[in-house]
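User: I've been trying to design a sequence by hand for this structure and keep getting stuck. Would you show me what you'd pick, starting by listing the structure so we're on the same page?

Assistant: Good idea, let's start from the same input. This is the structure you sent:
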């Protein structure tokens, strides 16, 4: 069975606003001002909680304070879970593309480096969790992207064949995961790092989700 696997943050949805708000709550808890800017720091937000904390700590002159980053990380996750869908929005056409692929007989799944429980909570709050055949997160398996087994097991759980799959993402992590799994990658050009996607040499770049069905047909039939 042919399977299209999606990354979540920065691919299906812009989650940066809620992620940055959670990180800033940690900095306020430390007795300092908000260290991250929702407009300027979108790209780092989509790389995850530790990346945001590290950037903020660097701006405080404490970029090497890994102990504090480790201490703040669970607090960030708690704050994020409490307001996970306040600012998050699905990208235009994302779910129409997912539905179109399902109707055409493809299996669709999510492979994310967000903790699985948070990914499920977010998608449930947005009313789309049930539209995917499988979801795996950073802690679902002993490995995570860019390890190819994360992608392959996601495909298997969706009822597909890893050989006949592709990964839709927004980063070098996604491109490297697909490359390691020896399957095509499709990167989105509309995210905060869209201008950098061509340098990663994916099999395709899309400027809107309207383009995805045709690209999928071309790459995996």
């Amino acid at each position: 069975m042919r399977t299209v696997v999606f990354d979540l943050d920065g691919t299906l949805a812009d989650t940066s606003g809620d992620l940055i708000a959670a990180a800033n709550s940690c900095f306020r808890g430390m007795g300092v001002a908000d260290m991250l800017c929702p407009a300027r720091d979108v790209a780092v937000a989509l790389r995850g909680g530790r990346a945001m904390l590290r950037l903020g700590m660097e701006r405080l002159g404490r970029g090497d304070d890994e102990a504090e980053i480790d201490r703040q990380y669970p607090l960030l996750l708690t704050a994020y879970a409490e307001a996970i869908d306040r600012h998050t929005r699905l990208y235009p056409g994302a779910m129409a593309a997912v539905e179109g692929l399902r109707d055409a007989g493809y299996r669709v799944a999510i492979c994310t480096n967000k903790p699985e429980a948070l990914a499920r909570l977010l998608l449930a709050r947005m009313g789309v969790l049930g539209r995917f055949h499988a979801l795996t997160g950073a802690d679902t398996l002993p490995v995570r992207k860019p390890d190819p087994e994360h992608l392959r097991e996601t495909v298997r759980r969706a009822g597909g064949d890893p050989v006949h799959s592709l990964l839709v993402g927004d980063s070098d992590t996604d491109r490297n995961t697909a490359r390691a799994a020896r399957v095509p990658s499709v990167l989105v050009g509309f995210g905060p790092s869209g201008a950098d996607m061509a340098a990663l040499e994916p099999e395709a770049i899309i400027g809107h989700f309207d383009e995805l069905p045709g690209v999928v047909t071309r790459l995996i039939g």
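That's my pick for every position. To get oriented when you compare it with your attempt: The first helix runs from residue 16 to 29. The chain has a mean pLDDT of 96.
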